[in-house]
Amino acid sequence: MEELGLAFGLILALEGALYALFPNGMKKMMLLVMAQPSENLRLTGLGTAIIGVGIIWFMRRILT
Predict the structure, then answer these.
(1) Whole-angstrom distance between the N-terminal and C-terminal Cα of the chain?
(2) Are 26 and 18 contacting, i.e. CB atoms less than 8 angstroms apart?
(3) pLDDT tens-digit readout, 12-47
(4) pTM check: above 0.85
(5) Structural domain boundaries enclosing 55
């Protein structure tokens, strides 16, 4: 459970840094995302989630 909290904190820190450093770029990116079909966003999200789980699995195997 501790690792889940750390991961969530890291996500918030990275997202916050992007919005703080590049506010106009993030606005432009949001407009691009809004223009995408839902199916593209769904597949991109699924692919990203699979890659994330793979990275976590790989790192846990290396570190334990």
Answers:
(1) 17
(2) yes
(3) 999 999 999 999 999 999 999 999 999 999 999 999
(4) no
(5) 2-63
